[in-house]
Amino acid sequence: MPGPGRIVYTQDGDLGDNKRLATLSLFLIVHQALNPMAAEQTPSVASTASARSPLYEASTQYRHWRFSPEQLAHTRTTLNEAAVKVIRDAFEADSPGTSADVSFLDADEELLLVKLYASKVSQFCGHFRFPEEVEATAVTYLKRFYLKNTVMDWHPKNVMLTTLFLATKTTNHPIALEHFAAHIPRTSPSDVVDIEFLVAQSLGFDFAVWHTHRALWGLWLDLQALPDIDLNELRKAYDIALAHVRASRLTDAELIYAPSQIALACMSLASPGLASAWARAKCSSPGSTPGSPSDSSSPTPDTAMLQLLEPIKNMILTQGSPPEVEAVREVDRRLKLCKNPEKIVGSNAYNKKREEQERKAAEKRTRKAAQIRKAMADGDPFGSELGDQMLVDDDDDDDD
């Protein structure tokens, strides 16, 4: 039974089921490591995989936040181009002719800035002594947010703090807002919570996350049960693999691959022998000799599985480190010049937008008041007529 105050995720599965997550979907590891969309392309594969991994495939992470590398690149490029057009128009509306001299960020530069602030999450978690779950969740929220938004609207520093604070709540490690803000220089409570709903909305309110470090823990438990395993070697390999898992958070790995795939790749980087032993144990069928091929011309299932992990390992090794500060500093300098003027407090564009929002809000309140007065005059304050009128879309203008 869960303790008081513990969040229990039913739709997205039991997040505490480490071993099921670790041994999750060997079928997916073999068939989807290089092509994460394979389940959608081949219905027979999807049905077989579903039978083996119902929990993960039922999760919002699998259904909403899994992409191919091409899809990620297209999403970011399209978002960046649309943002540049909107912001350019905002510059022109604020002061005609000024957008010609503005050097807008491209999608790669936006990603570089997001990556820097993702790397800073661990520093804050170390300061507040937050557990691994909070750190991993905050980084995931940050990366997902910028698949829906642009840094030219919302600076990653503010979003990073908000995703971290939100993660403390969704992982059941809450902290008082005042205490959180007081320990961060030049930060007020409003800086943290003003965009909290926007962040939650951008996440689609998909708060549950299936993490790689939990899958790695399950792998570690599995390996302990294998014969002829040196526990001292296993402990050292686990620590190294966990470092690779943390490095993977700075990459797109979790947006492309399953947690079990990334965990096995990290174990392979730490100890190829242990990863091979685990793969042989899981791929061997009863009555067969582990690792013996049925066809000498084709690789064994465990060998094929490990070969398909190579793109993940390469991604972690080449992209799993924080960006150079000087490169990011130049991007951040340019961001100050191309930031959406409608988001800059005190600018003409900001003031105009606020005035427009206030005007629309006043009109909406006036319409609702008139509807209520009419209903009262008709003697039907809570009747069907008022209910039908209130169903009309009043355009809340929640586009911030």
From TrEMBL:
SMART domains: CYCLIN
SUPFAM superfamilies: Cyclin-like (SSF47954)
Keyword terms, alphabetized: Cyclin
Keyword Amino-acid biosynthesis assigned: no
Domain Cyclin-like: 119-201
Entry similarity comment: Belongs to the cyclin family.
Protein name: Cyclin-like domain-containing protein
